[in-house]
Structures are given as structure tokens and as C-alpha cells.
Write a structure and sequence with these properties.
about 70% helix, mainly alpha, 2 domains, single chain, flat, 5 helices, about 140 residues
Length: about 140
């Protein structure tokens, strides 16, 4: 059985997945703008359309978040780790606050569903990673 080296960074996707993710986001945004600006606004409310666009958006964000950089070094790996920590912290705070508000009856609006939560967490990760990469490097 092959031993897994904890210092092996092959667990990230190849660099070209970043481009695929960027292209997917541009196509999704263009499609949503087209649907809303034309007479096809009824599609935006269809459950199948919402599910498909959400799933594709999650996949594209996943490609952006977990693909290697062109020049991946130790500092970028540290930024990734810090971004994961911030995302996990935001997740814990969000669930603690929302569960407290729901159980006390203060907040009774519809809950955010799983797809939206995943999108939010991936966006938090991306923003944190990009800010660290661009500001601290």
C-alpha cells in the first residue's frame, strides 16, 4: 500500500481548473443576466433552473478554490490554511447565531438552504485567500 506523504501537495487540482472555473462563472452570470433581461424571467423561479445554476456555481467555485496557483509556494499554502480557518470560524459563528435566533423566535424568516450556504462558504474562502495573496504577498 502506498504511503501518503503529508507534505505532498498533489491533492489540489491542476492549474487549468482555475480557468475552467472562471469561464463557468462568466457563462453562468451571462446566462442569468440573459434570463432576467428577456421574457424568460419565469425560468429563474423554476426549481430545476435554480438547482442547476446553483450546482454549476458551486462546481466553478470549487474549481477556483482548490486548484493550484501557477507558482505555488509555502506562503500560498499558509494563506490557504488561514483562509480555511477563517471560513470555518465564519461557519461556526453563523450556525451558532442563526440557531440561537431561531430557537428564541427572534428570527423566523425562511432559512438559507444548503446550496446557498455552500456558495457562501466557498465565497468566504475565496475572498480570504485572494485578500491574503494580494495584500500580504
Amino acid at each position: 500500500m502506498k504511503k501518503v506523504n503529508p507534505n505532498n501537495h498533489d491533492m489540489l487540482l491542476p492549474v487549468y481548473f482555475r480557468k475552467i472555473g472562471e469561464i463557468m462563472i462568466v457563462i453562468l452570470v451571462a446566462a442569468l443576466i440573459l434570463v432576467r433581461s428577456t421574457g424568460l424571467a419565469y425560468l429563474d423561479k423554476a426549481p430545476a433552473f435554480k438547482m442547476t445554476t446553483s450546482a454549476l456555481f458551486i462546481i466553478s467555485l470549487f474549481f477556483l478554490a482548490w486548484s493550484k496557483e501557477k507558482e505555488d509556494d509555502e506562503q500560498l499554502r499558509l494563506f490557504r490554511l488561514k483562509a480555511i480557518k477563517v471560513t470555518l470560524f465564519c461557519c461556526v459563528i453563523y450556525f451558532f447565531v442563526m440557531s440561537s435566533l431561531y430557537t428564541t423566535g427572534i428570527y423566523t424568516a425562511p432559512q438559507i438552504h444548503g446550496m446557498e450556504q455552500i456558495i457562501g462558504l466557498l465565497l468566504i474562502y475565496q475572498l480570504t485567500f485572494k485578500l491574503q495573496k494580494n495584500v500580504l504577498k
